[in-house]
Amino acid sequence: MPLVRISVPQHLDDKQLKHISDATHAAMVSTFNVPADDRFQALTRHAGAELVCTPQYLEIPHTGAVVFIQITCNEGRTVDMKKALFAKLASSIAGGGAVLPSDVIVSLVEVKKENWSFGNGIAQYAA
Questions:
Q1: Residue 41 DSSP code
Q2: How many C-beta atoms surround the C-beta of residue 55 within 10 A?
Q3: Which pLDDT score, from 0 to 100, does residue 125 have?
Q4: CA neighbor of 22 nearest in space, from 75, 116, 95, 108
Q5: What's the 3-state SS for the chain?
Q6: How far apart are the first and last CA of the chain?
């Protein structure tokens, strides 16, 4: 159950936000072994001063249309799977036309399975 937080600039409309949401989920399904019905996302729009991103980092330019994606997931995926996810996210999101691939910034937070509760106050994956 990855929990995905997606932060976008306020100027993106509902259609663009839906594209980013759908593209993110599809990328996780195709590269990260996430089941199609395993979708948990929090989407937020931010005013210009609320998304801070350096204009260039690691020789990668960034614009005012930066998208931050934080994925909290179980640990255990390979480096190759992570690279495939990052590449798929950038290309798929950019395919919507509102965001450049260089403006898709992703952070993975890996946790142990026992750190989740899917409801009712129970740690369903705790051994």
A1: E
A2: 8
A3: 87
A4: 95
A5: CCEEEEEEECCCCHHHHHHHHHHHHHHHHHHCCCCCCCCCEEEEEECHHHCCCCCEECCEECCCCCEEEEEEEECCCCHHHHHHHHHHHHHHHHCCCCCCHHHEEEEEEEECHHHCCCCCCCCCCCC
A6: 17
Question: 69 and 6 in contact (C-beta within 8 Å)?
Answer: yes
What is the rounded average pLDDT for all residues in the chain?
95
Mind listing the pLDDT tens digit for each residue in 9-68? 999 999 999 999 999 999 999 999 999 999 999 999 999 899 999 999 999 999 989 999
Tokens 């950038």, residue located: 90
**Could you tell me the two tokens for 73?**
């997931």
Predicted local confidence at residue 1, as pLDDT: 81
